[in-house]
From TrEMBL:
One of its GO terms (biological process) is regulation of transcription by RNA polymerase II. It holds the Pfam family Ppx-GppA. It comes from Mailhella massiliensis. Signal peptide: none annotated. InterPro entries: ATPase_NBD (IPR043129), GppA/Ppx_hydrolase (IPR050273), HD/PDEase_dom (IPR003607), Ppx_GppA_C (IPR048950), Ppx_GppA_N (IPR003695), PyroPPase_GppA_Ppx (IPR030673). The keyword Hydrolase applies. This is Ppx/GppA family phosphatase. GO terms for molecular function: hydrolase activity. Residues 328-478 form the Ppx/GppA phosphatase C-terminal domain. Keywords: Hydrolase. It comes from the Bacteria.
Length: 519
């Protein structure tokens, strides 16, 4: 994002494709960080309907979703949206044809969705809900019951201590335990036991952190809280329940009323959302089980969620605070330190790599997007973590560790690209290293220059002495020059650099290397 755009503000749309609903918020972000909501819209498309048993998204829900997204695209045009952040969750994440559907959505609507992991979803929900809460002395636990999954997290202030994603959602559970008829106490107990069995270890980890307040943020929890208030009002009795807080007693009263009736009878219950009649009992079973297991007497209800977390991330990236490590930076450093990386060397290589990137871009030698700079920097920090397993083929080990780690804040494509850069950092894009790696011609062109920048940076600190202080490209009449400045003789680096000559010529044509200083 350039400085001019940041200074004048931006209009941004955040889309959340859930298993039940499509949600979009359109906001104007001013140069002073003030965010104004221009519009928000929600459509219940039930994308996850029939998907979890078959492991495939079904034709009719996909058709409904695309139709709704066309309307959302029209709204974006009418508001002059500068950028769209579009996120897809469990229904797409778990479907065999999820990527095919994302391709169709892109063709039909122009929206390019990112499919996020369950833990990333939990992080965004936690962040989105937290920003609206007052400071709290203890730890809070957050729960969001979606159609295909339930996200849990524990935070203390702004520090997220635990993230979990359970393959337990209201739509998924309804597929296993159909609820159109009255539900017996025995059947409901079976439902709860299923939840208990599939959540036992994550709940143990949550319990060990001793959270003292539970905050719920899904449409399911909001609907249950609204029903508790409406039912108490119609009965004429007093209740501690409000739209902002639901007690375990109030939840049990709702469950009893829901289970006694068939789907048609539930429609007549006070406060009932007619579009949730088939999934409210499974959703209640998930909430009740978790509250009982962790001894919560009530759940605080929030209308915020994933979109708000994505917006907070966006604003943070728009007004980057140099003194604060981003979520992405924290993820990278956490993995690097877990693998005991050599911090001084890795930071030096990262700085040299982005120095080469910047000069290549300024000289017109690299025409890729500016956002690749950040990914190159993070890949450079992680390039040697494979040594934690073995020095032999450590680049392949680095690739494996990055590709299979939970990298919060990154998309799957970004993680894949960082892993590939780490794989190719020793010798560039070689046949040996690309064995077993599938890359299209377009993907190869995207990664080849970035892999070269990292290979050069690594070669220029092969002795781990940080002797090279600067490296940059210059266009000259006779071709391209790589100019290197050093504060000490660099025989090891000079020898290692020879391995990069062929890759440099492939990228830039005729290239000469010029050493300056004492190198």
């Amino acid at each position: 994002m350039d400085a001019e755009q940041s200074a004048s503000g931006r209009t941004v749309a955040i889309l959340d494709m859930g298993s039940n609903s499509l949600r979009m918020i359109v906001v104007r972000i001013g140069s002073n960080r003030v965010t104004s909501v221009l519009n928000q819209v929600k459509q219940m498309v039930r994308l996850g309907e029939g998907a979890f048993g078959e492991h495939r998204l079904q034709p009719e829900p996909m058709r409904r979703t695309v139709a709704a997204l066309r309307g959302f695209a029209g709204m974006c045009r009418s508001y002059g949206v500068d950028e769209v952040v579009a996120l897809a969750t469990a229904a797409v994440r778990d479907a065999e044809n999820g990527q095919e559907f994302m391709d169709e959505v892109r063709r039909e609507t122009g929206f390019d969705f990112t499919v996020i992991s369950g833990r990333e979803e939990a992080r965004l929900i936690c962040r989105g809900v937290s920003v609206a809460l007052e400071p709290f002395a203890g730890k809070r636990m957050f729960i969001d019951i979606g159609g295909g999954s339930t996200e849990l997290s524990v935070a203390e202030g702004s520090d997220i201590l635990e993230l979990e994603s359970l393959k337990l959602g209201a739509v998924r559970l309804a597929g296993l335990f159909p609820c159109s008829s009255p539900v017996s106490a025995q059947r409901y107990a079976q439902m709860q036991q299923y939840v208990r069995d599939h959540a036992v270890l994550p709940l143990q980890r949550m319990e060990a952190l001793s959270p003292s307040e539970l905050v719920g943020s899904s449409g399911t929890i909001q609907s249950l809280a609204e029903m508790a208030v409406a039912m108490a009002r119609e009965a004429g009795g007093k209740t501690a329940d409000t739209p902002e807080r639901l007690s375990i007693e109030g939840l049990k009263r709702i469950v009893k009323a829901l289970c006694e009736r068939n789907e048609e009878g539930r429609m007549a219950l006070p406060g009932m959302n007619p579009r949730r009649t088939g999934i409210l009992i499974p959703g209640a079973a998930i909430l009740q089980t978790i509250m009982e297991e962790l001894n919560f007497g009530s759940v605080r209800v929030s209308a915020r969620g994933l979109r708000d977390g994505a917006l907070a991330d966006y604003v943070e990236s728009m007004f980057e605070d140099k003194g604060r490590i981003s979520v992405k930076g924290q993820s990278v450093l956490r993995l690097a330190r877990l693998c005991r990386f050599e911090e001084i060397h890795s930071h030096h290589v990262a700085n040299l790599a982005v120095m080469l990137f910047d000069h290549a871009r300024a000289q017109g030698l690299y025409r890729g997007p500016a956002r690749m700079r950040e990914l190159l920097y993070y890949a450079a920090l992680l390039h040697d973590i494979g040594i934690f397993l073995s020095f032999t083929r450590h680049n392949a080990h680095s690739h494996y560790l990055i590709r299979n780690s939970e990298m919060l804040g990154f998309t799957e494509k970004e993680v894949s690209l960082m892993a590939l850069l780490a794989l190719f950092h020793r010798y560039g894009y070689t046949k040996k290293d690309r064995a077993g790696v599938e890359l299209s011609a377009e993907g190869l062109e995207e990664i080849r220059p970035l892999a070269l920048f990292l290979s050069l940076a690594e070669a220029l600190d092969k002795s781990h002495r940080q002797a090279v202080t600067k490296a940059f490209f210059e266009r000259r009449e006779e071709g391209v020059a790589l100019i290197i400045r050093a504060k000490a003789p660099c025989p090891v680096e000079q020898e290692r650099l020879k391995r990069c000559f062929k890759a440099m010529e492939k990228c830039f044509g005729k290239t000469q290397v010029l050493w300056q200083g004492e190198g």
